[in-house]
Structure formats: C-alpha cells, structure tokens
Design a protein that fits this description.
13 strands; Aminopeptidase; alpha/beta; 8-stranded mixed β-sheet
Length: 281
C-alpha cells in the first residue's frame, strides 16, 4: 500500500493491529465486453470513530460499516455467475478504525494516490478517506461508468431515515440508479450537490479537509469530498446506504434484521441497463 501511494487507506488502518488492505476483483466475460464498469465499496470492518471516538450507544452496529464492500463483492460475484458481457473491476478499501498510539489524528495531513492532500479534522469521517484512494485507483482503469456505495454519513440517516439511500453524482448515472432502484424495490432518493457546500471543505494547509466543522448538509458535503477524486469526464454515482444497510429493528419486506444487502438489487439492475445501453450503441 505504501508503494502504491494509498495514504488514505494506510492512515485509517494505522490504529489497528489488523493491517488494512485494498482488494481488487477483475471480471472479464468469455465473449466481447460491451462496456467497462468500475465499482467501489467502503470496507471499514469496524468503526469506533478512532481518536474522534463515537458514543458507546449503538457502537456495536459499526460492524456493519463494511456493508458497501460486502455489496460490491456480492455484485461482482453475481455478474460473473451470470456471465454478463461487461468488464467489471471492483476496488475495495478495507481497514479497521481504532484509537491507539499509532492511530491517525486530527490535524494530520494525508496524501492520497492521486496526489491530492486532506487535512484530517475528524477521524470518524474515515470512510471518505479510504474511498478517496479507491476511487482514484478505479479511475485509472478508465471505466465508462463508476458506481460507489458506502455507509458514508450519519447525516444520510437523519435526512432520509432508516430505509432510504441517498444518491449523488453525475446527472445521467444518478438518474439511472434511481430508476433501477424503483424497479428493484430498494428505496433511494436523488440528492443534489450544491456548489456552495464545497467551500466548507477548504483547508489552509491541504487541498481540502475531510469533514466540515458544522453539521449542515453533511451527506452532500460527503459527496463533494468523493467527487474530488473522480477523474474529469467520468460518469459516476455515489450511493449513501447509511440508513438501509443495517436493519436494527424488526424484519420488513424482504429485509431481515441485521445486514440487508442493500443496494445489490439496484446495482445489478443498473449494470444490466448500462450493458443494454452500450450494446444498443
């Protein structure tokens, strides 16, 4: 990871004895691939918040902070099992966010794979830090589309509740994801990225800070941070599944108590649609 310049993944995982990883999965079909799709999923195997430690209440549910990674691994395996005519590359950053004498700290400046830097203001905004490296790496594959999913912000749960995911990104791909979610039965809502919120990420010592100091538009600010690592011209979508990824209540619909698998159904439907669109020329 150090040789690969994955400074974000290394920083977040630095507090744990369990070393961080960057997992890459590459599927190519037996026949011609009609398009190339990159998928990225957040794999924080446990999130204590690090030095900016979380409250004890419900910290046990932070075992679910790898839901984005699990969904993308499952999607990659599903695409391969179905033999779909697409080149699919999954990039999965994995780390455990714990406080210790070696943990990354507020005021640290992290250098990411693409050379951008971030001043750490909150170690509990770690998902975007590992995803920055993963998105930058995924863009190097020059995909036609990039889809990322993560339990990124508590603000998403506050805004949309426990059953609805927020979707940001390029207008076209965001719209395709929303349409696919409606066909798949997974509740999602298109969210804006107001340009004025980007100013909240300005830093005097780095390209940006990892978390704004106020609580306004936290889900949208998280989307802005990720957008900084998407290559210009790349169609991309970010699905914040902080609400629906883990069901702490009783079962409902086809969602069991515990991990729900959201947004695998939407991802498959979206990818099938992108393949059909590419095949039609």
């Amino acid at each position: 990871l150090a040789k690969g310049r994955y400074g974000g993944v290394l920083a977040v995982g630095s507090g744990s004895d369990r070393k961080p990883r960057l997992v890459r999965m590459h599927y190519t079909p037996a026949g011609r691939a009609v398009c190339k799709i990159a998928i990225v999923g957040k794999g924080i195997t446990f999130d204590s918040g690090g030095i900016s430690i979380k409250p004890a209440a419900k910290m046990d549910e932070m075992k679910s902070d790898m839901a984005g990674a699990a969904a993308m691994v499952a999607t990659a395996c599903l695409i391969a099992e179905l033999g779909l005519p697409v080149e699919l590359i999954a990039t999965i950053p994995m780390a455990e966010n714990l406080p210790s004498g070696t943990a990354y700290r507020p005021a640290d400046v992290i250098t990411f794979r693409n050379g951008k830097t971030a001043e750490i203001t909150n170690t509990d905004a770690e998902g975007r830090v590992v995803l920055a490296d993963a998105i930058a790496r995924a863009c190097e594959d020059e995909p036609d589309w990039l889809i990322e999913t993560s339990t990124l912000t508590g603000a998403a749960r506050i805004a949309l509740g426990a059953r609805t995911a927020g979707v940001m990104g390029s207008d076209d791909l965001r719209g395709r994801v929303i349409a696919a979610s409606e066909r798949s039965g997974e509740a999602m809502w298109a969210m804006p990225m107001p340009p004025e919120l980007r100013k909240g990420l300005d830093s005097s010592v780095a390209d940006l800070i990892n978390a704004n100091t106020d609580r306004l538009g936290g889900m949208l600010v998280g989307g802005h941070f990720l957008s900084e690592f998407v290559s210009e011209g790349t169609e991309w979508a970010h699905i914040d599944i902080a609400g629906p990824a883990f069901n702490s209540g009783s079962a409902w619909g086809y969602n069991p108590k515990g991990g729900t698998g959201v947004p695998i159904r939407t991802l498959l439907t979206t990818i099938e649609g992108l393949i059909a669109n590419a095949a039609a020329g």
